Structures are given as structure tokens and as C-alpha cells.
Amino acid sequence: MTFTLDMTMMFAMHDALRRELERIARVAARTGDDPRRVLRTAAGWELFKTFLQVHHTSEDIALWPVMRRELADRPADLALLDAMEAEHAAIDPLLAGVDAALADRDHGADRLGGLVDALATGLGDHLRHEEAEGLALIDATLTGPQWQRFGEVHRDRIGGNLTRYLPWLLDDADPRAAALILDRMPPPLVAAYHDEWRPAYAGLRLYS
After folding, report:
1. Is residue 109 scored above 90 in pLDDT?
2. For the chain, how many structural domains are there in total?
């Protein structure tokens, strides 16, 4: 589908979340080590939670309310927004459930695999739903400045985490998408990404 609004960062974020879900599922399935110990101390798990919450909170603040005002007389479209928000609300308990299993010395190991599967299914279904229906509605509803405002809120909520967010976002990304994102950024920031941020990120023990 061709969009009027620039969805590059949205798709990059979705791809990054899917990538991390796959990595987390592989850790949870390990048999030679206690996956709870690995995930409990994993930088990858913390970054995933942090940036997922930034993304969804930004949508809850700067996307869905604006669209509700624009679509106030269109009940079918409002029902789609209701579904998007309900799917968001279901994710936080799944994250909390995984964290609870990681901290449960007695029964956490038995519950972890099922909880990670539920998280992967719930978030994966939401991302597919948003891409199949939500993004088209966003594209048809928001003006350029309204879409830009969402991006600004997203960046503001990342704040000082930008030094980790950008390498995390572009980790194993399609080279063309990564180049497109970097080409739009100020040269000093791109230089910092290549010279400092990406090497520091590469040195993190994401899931070990």
C-alpha cells in the first residue's frame, strides 16, 4: 500500500519489536541455562520494554485522541480505534507477567514459556492489525502537521535514551530502510551514531 504520510519510522519500529520478540522467545526456549536468569539481567529485555512502552504511550497520547476527534461521526472507524487501544491495554499485563515469572524462583520457570508465547502472540497480532487496518486509517485521517506532532511526542519520550534507541531500532534492519532514516538526520547526530552509539550498543550483552 502507498501512504501519503511517511510511515518509515512506524514500520522500522514494528520490525524492531518483531525482531526482539523472536530473540526473547529463543532465550525462553533455552534448555542449557535458566532463561529466567538470562532475561532478568538482559539489556535486551529492558530495552524492548522501554521502547515498546514509549511507542504505545506516544500513540495513546498523540495519535488516538486526535483521530477520535476527527472521526467523531464515524462509528465504524471509532470501533477500530477502540480495538487498537484495547490491544495496547492487553500488552502491559503480559509484560508484567513475564517479569513476575522471572522473579518467581519456585514456579517461574514453568510459566515463562507460556507467558512469552502469549506476549509474542498478543503483540504480533496487534502489529499485524495496525498494519492491515490502522495505518490506512491514520493515513486517511491525519494531516501532515498532526502526524509530525506524533513523531515529536515519540522523540520527546525517548529523550536521553536516543543513544541506545537509534542503534536498537536499526539493529539488523533492512539496509535501505536504515539508510533512509539516517539520511534524514543531522550530520552530527549521524556521526555520533556511527562513531559512538552503535559501537557502545554492540558491546552490550543483550541476551547473555
Report:
1. no
2. 1
